[in-house]
Amino acid sequence: MDASAYAIEAELGATHWWFEGRRRILRAVLEGVERPDAPRIYDIGPGSGQNLSVWRAYGEVVAVDASPEAIRFCRSRYDGVMQGSLERLPLAADSAQWLVATDVLEHLRDDAAGAREFARVLKPGPRSLGVLTVPAFGWLWGVQDDVTHHFRRYTKRQFASLLRGAGLEIERLTYFNTWLLPPIALGRFLMRTTGMRPESENNLSAPGVNGLLNAIFSSEAAWLRRFDLPLGVSLLAIVRKPAS
Questions:
Q1: Is the C or the N end of the chain the one with fewer CB within 10 Å?
Q2: Which CATH class, in words, describes the domain spanning 3-239?
């Protein structure tokens, strides 16, 4: 990401509708899956650490990031910090009970290599857990994809193929941020056609609007506790590594 994007994310992340809604959805989905007991959780590519409160409810959390800017933001907040990237994790094979990569694969030129490295490090068996999210649909490309240096967005089929090709078993795969898909698609279309280029889409929110968007987005959490959604701005996968 651009250095300015880390600063904006760190400032807005605690209350911004996107980050708060995603945290609620992650918590809701995790309620319905088998989880390791008190594991060490490796948060790969955490940015400024906006999902830390989710993972810390389940265990000790270690940030793993290649960016010195991200490490600076995370050093005082996480239980541990490691320099590394999803293409080359500083962890032994089959060693991690819980790996997280939220909105990371789309930043990699070779996302297949990143998925294989995720699978290499994840410990085999049903008591280990992988959590990944990516942005959905190339036609939703917007300013935020540019400022955060994305290479792609995914369909559900593309994401599933990527994960299975790395040797991971998909326990759950769903779209999310569904209710707000139409206005987000319209907003990005208008920005493309008018040439509007905000420093970050995260800045495009007023206090009253932020609360409304938060309520709409967060309401998906109740649905996602039990059901998948057929479309959305993002994708969420729960994966395991089969025991060999």
A1: C
A2: alpha beta
